[in-house]
Design a protein that fits this description.
304 residues, alpha+beta, Beta-lactamase, 2 domains, five-stranded antiparallel sheet, three-stranded antiparallel sheet, 13 helices, binds 6-diazenyl-5-OXO-L-norleucine
Amino acid sequence: MEKVLHTLYHKNKVYCKQGKVASYIPALAKQDGEKFGVAVMDLSGKFFAVGDVEEKFTLQSISKVFTLMLAIIDKGQEYVFSKVGMEPTGDPFNSIVKLETMNPSKPLNPMINAGAIAISSMIKGKNNGERFNRIRGFLEEIIGEKITFNEEVYLSEKETGNRNRAAAYFMKDVGIIEGNVEEVLDLYFRHCSLEVNCIQLAKLAGMLANQGVSVITGKRMVSKEITQLVKSFMVTCGMYNASGQFAIKVGVPAKSGVGGGIMAVVPNKYGVAVWGPALDQVGNSIGGVKILEDMSKEFDWSIF
Ligand code: DON
């Protein structure tokens, strides 16, 4: 694997030049679009890694997978899916167009921004500090080490995230969000700004590949049933309006974030992380998607 990974890394790194780093969150525009890293962990905890795998980046939308698991633990599936749907949108991740036209009016799935904001409102805790620590603590328990937080990216998104704010206020109006809207948004912006490197992200993916048990600590974090549910969302909605193409070309559950990370899961085999902040037009890491296509072909990863 090591040798093939090196070859594929150098082959696909050139694609990073064709992408653009996210700029709608001003602090993300400072990222270096030429950075590129890939890490694969097998279920014995053995690593194969190439490139910028020690550098931190914000989870952004990848955090939605973990908040979904916590919301289901806290509120149960019935409540969660009475507020958020289970269908892909075909629209960009930040689109709000379908919020009003769908009947009943609810975000289509928990992987788009609107759905994830609604999910943030379901995390248990007496106040936002407790809720945030619960999310961060969950991630830390999976990988067995501390997770850092990028204050600059958080403040930058909090200041400029008006489209998310619009979605949240609309959802409050129609009863999808209970509680204080600004607090819910604050929690959402905070969990999007938690940081990992590729090694840590591969450990997070490994828990899902391992049916809910942390590869690092051996501790069961969630039930197998919940991991099946979130992996299904990753397949159908994890790469936004490129999820269909990704399923065909790569064929594994994956979740991207505008920080340039992609967390991919090869069930019962590998936790995979790629990072390349240069994004394609959909908002997925351009080099990241390309190398995953090649790795899937090379190692026969497709689940289909
Ligand atoms: O809400 C946002 O726009 C960001 N915090 C997260 C979006 C994101 O990562 C979409 N990913 N490709």
